[in-house]
């Protein structure tokens, strides 16, 4: 009987399916950053959220999302309690912490002035002696610091959010010749939502793009490449364009970053 028992046991082992590994659960942090990420009834919505969900769906990964103030979100990522952040602008300082995805949405940093001002941006030297408001610490403030490095004498006011920057500019808090350094689409959205009057665009400073940052301490290079390839596949299939189109924001070209 012993051989029979052994044969049955082996048969049972062969017939029993091996349980598949559960899909990864990724924890992403973001902040309200309209029109890219909008808070609605305590939940994050908007084009970047939809693109993330579509990417995770293609991978069969479960991705959870938490709205946080940006400083806290960065701190949580640095402490290894988040797997990723968005929307994220790639900077040299952030490259030690994040894998950067292919770009998702194009954008522009611009200067806004009070209505009636004759100022038009003509390079960093044209900012000499002016007061500028900027949201920070953020990718925006980092970009402004880079612009002003070894350049003109400018007084910079770092504010807790973009709405504060625009309100203070409207009320002359940066002086009669004051300026706001801000993402163009963010500014236009806030001007409409806050019903702010009396501002005008004074020039485009820099073309940028936003994507996703995956924390290197949490995801391997191989897992990051899987994420980025899924992101690019959705872009090539037209799904990303369909998700972004209702928001009237410019989608980035479909590219995949090469492994480093």
Concise synopsis of the structure shown:
Keywords: Signal. With 260 residues, the protein is α/β, with parallel strands linked by helices. It has eight helices and eleven strands.
Classified in CATH, the superfamily of the largest domain is Periplasmic binding protein-like II
Number of domains: 2
Which secondary-structure class do the elements indicate?
Answer: alpha/beta
Radius of gyration: 23 Å
Q: Order of helices and strands, N to C?
A: HEEEHEHEEEEHEHEHEHH
Strand content: 25-35%
Count of helices? 8
Provide mean pLDDT, rounded.
89
Instruction: Report the uncertain regions.
Output: 1-20
Question: CATH class of the largest domain, anyone?
Answer: Alpha Beta
CATH topology of the largest domain: D-Maltodextrin-Binding Protein, domain 2
Strand count, sense and closure of the main sheet?
A: 9 strands, mixed
Describe the model:
This protein is of the alpha/beta class and 260 residues long. The protein folds into two domains: 24-106 and 209-247, Periplasmic binding protein-like II (D-Maltodextrin-Binding Protein, domain 2); 108-207, D-Maltodextrin-Binding Protein, domain 2, CATH 3.40.190.10. It has helices at 2-15, 47-59, 70-78, 139-148, 162-170, 184-193, 221-237, 239-244, and strands at residues 25-30, 38-40, 43-45, 62-67, 84-88, 98-100, 105-114, 131-135, 155-159, 179-183, 199-215. The strands form two sheets. Strands 1, 4, 5, 6, 7, 8, 9, 10 and 11 form a nine-stranded mixed sheet that branches. Strands 2-3 form a two-stranded antiparallel ribbon. The chain is globular and about 55 Å long.
């Amino acid at each position: 009987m012993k051989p029979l028992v052994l044969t049955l046991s082996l048969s049972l082992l062969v017939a029993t399916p091996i349980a598949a590994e559960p899909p990864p659960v990724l924890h992403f942090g973001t902040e309200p950053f309209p029109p890219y990420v909008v808070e609605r009834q305590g939940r994050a919505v908007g084009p970047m959220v939809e693109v993330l969900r579509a990417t995770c769906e293609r991978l069969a990964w479960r991705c959870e999302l938490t709205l946080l103030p940006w400083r806290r979100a960065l701190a949580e990522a640095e402490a290894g309690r988040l797997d990723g952040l968005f929307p994220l602008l790639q900077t040299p300082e952030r490259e030690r912490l994040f894998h950067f995805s292919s770009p998702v949405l194009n954008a522009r940093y611009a200067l806004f002035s009070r209505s009636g001002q004759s100022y038009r941006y003509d390079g960093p030297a044209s900012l000499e002696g002016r007061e500028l408001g900027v949201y920070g610490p953020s990718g925006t403030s980092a970009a402004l610091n880079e612009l002003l490095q070894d350049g003109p004498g400018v007084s910079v006011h770092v504010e807790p959010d973009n709405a504060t920057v625009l309100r203070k500019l409207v009320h002359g808090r940066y002086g009669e010749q004051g300026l706001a350094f801000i993402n163009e689409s963010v500014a236009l959205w806030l001007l409409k939502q806050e019903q702010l009057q009396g501002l005008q665009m004074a020039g485009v400073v820099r073309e940028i793009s936003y994507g996703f940052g995956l924390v290197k301490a949490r995801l391997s290079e191989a897992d990051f490449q899987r994420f980025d390839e899924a992101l690019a596949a959705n872009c090539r299939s037209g799904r990303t364009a369909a998700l972004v189109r209702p928001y009237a924001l410019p989608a980035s070209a479909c590219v995949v970053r090469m492994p480093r």
